[in-house]
Write a structure and sequence with these properties.
Elements: H1 3-18, H2 21-28, H3 32-46, E1 51-53, E2 58-60, H4 62-86, E3 94-100, H5 102-119, E4 123-129, H6 136-139, E5 143-147, E6 155-159, E7 166-170, E8 193-195, E9 205-209, E10 212-216, E11 222-224, H7 227-235, E12 241-244, H8 245-253, E13 258-260, E14 271-276, H9 283-294
Parallel strand pairs: 3-4, 3-5, 8-11
Antiparallel strand pairs: 1-2, 5-14, 6-14, 7-12, 7-13, 9-10
Helix pairs in contact: 1-2, 1-3, 2-3
């Protein structure tokens, strides 16, 4: 590749982003005629049109779309290389975007936020609370937090917090008219508060005891897609709920909830910080990973 090609590719990417020679010129600090000259030179070099032009609009050709797709990772690599050099300064700077389910934000992320912000004041921590799975790269996120069993295999993971444990609970008033279940098989006769997952499916309650695993499709009059609403309904005596132990422990201790099937709720690997495997990592993400590894908050989910 000739040196001029790299410059022309940068011009092409800017035109493709703005679909305007004039706006691309303003961004690059060059004249529209210089933009046109660069695009023409690139098209002559490749022997294929990259942009379809009219007096009113600019659009990518099929060849232009394919070239732009290939340039994305290349320019991203250049940006990360420049940021890696910038990391040689005293402190990482810039945004750090995380996608986090609400339960993980409440149980494991919150204790890290203030200490991390104090340690790295030039990093802008941007947390998107979202229970749905999103593609990190295409959605512009640096990393995410999820339970380990739900992560894709090509992700790099770092433990975040201790193991998790479920707790099956109900208000004392619920057991005035309902028997206490002693095994998951007895849940069929109970009014259970169900949880709808982001996919639209109902969550099947999962239990483990001494190597035996059970998955129970419960039934009941209430359905929510938010753990806080499930908790409030359980506190009001509406039925049995299955929630993370960390969410309900204070209410159990206060006597507002009664725990059942405890022997069937064994600990399991908890939340993980996950991110794509990259040869060059943005400095804010590297700082956050190192911070998490060096400050494991073992009581975060209790």
């Amino acid at each position: 590749m000739e040196r001029a090609d790299l410059s022309n590719l940068a011009v092409f990417a800017t035109v493709a982003e703005h679909l305007s020679f004039r706006r691309a010129g303003r961004v690059l600090g060059i004249s529209p005629s210089a933009v046109s000259h660069a695009i023409r030179g690139l098209e002559e070099r490749l022997h294929v049109p990259l942009l379809a032009r009219t007096t009113r609009s600019v659009a990518l050709t099929t060849a232009g779309e394919r070239l732009l797709e290939g340039l994305g990772p290349a320019f991203s690599g250049i940006d990360m290389a420049l940021e890696a050099v910038a990391a040689l300064r005293d402190r990482p700077v810039g945004p750090l975007r995380l996608t986090v389910p609400r339960s993980a934000a409440q149980l494991v992320l919150t204790p890290y936020v203030a200490p991390f912000s104090a340690a790295f004041p030039d990093v802008v921590l941007d947390v998107d609370i979202n229970d749905r799975f999103v593609d990190l790269v295409s959605s512009g996120f640096d990393a995410g937090i999820r339970i380990g069993e739900s992560l894709e295999r090509d992700m790099v993971v770092t433990p975040l917090g201790p193991p998790l444990r479920f707790a099956a609970v109900a208000a004392p008033s619920y057991f005035v008219n309902h028997k206490v279940p002693h095994s998951p098989s007895e849940l069929s006769g109970h009014r259970c508060i169900r949880r709808r997952q982001p996919s639209g499916n109902f969550y099947h309650w999962e239990f483990d005891r001494e190597g035996a695993s059970l998955e129970v499709e419960v039934d009941g009059p209430l359905i929510f897609n938010d753990d806080q609403l499930v908790l409030e309904a359980a506190l009001a005596g509406a039925g049995l709920a299955l929630l993370f132990e960390g969410h309900v422990a204070p209410y159990i201790e206060a006597g507002r909830l009664v725990r059942v099937l405890e022997a069937w709720c064994e600990p399991f690997p908890g939340f993980f910080l996950y991110y794509p495997s990259r040869r060059l990592m943005r400095p804010p993400l590297r700082a956050f990973i190192d911070f998490v590894r060096g400050n494991v908050l073992c009581g975060a989910s209790r």
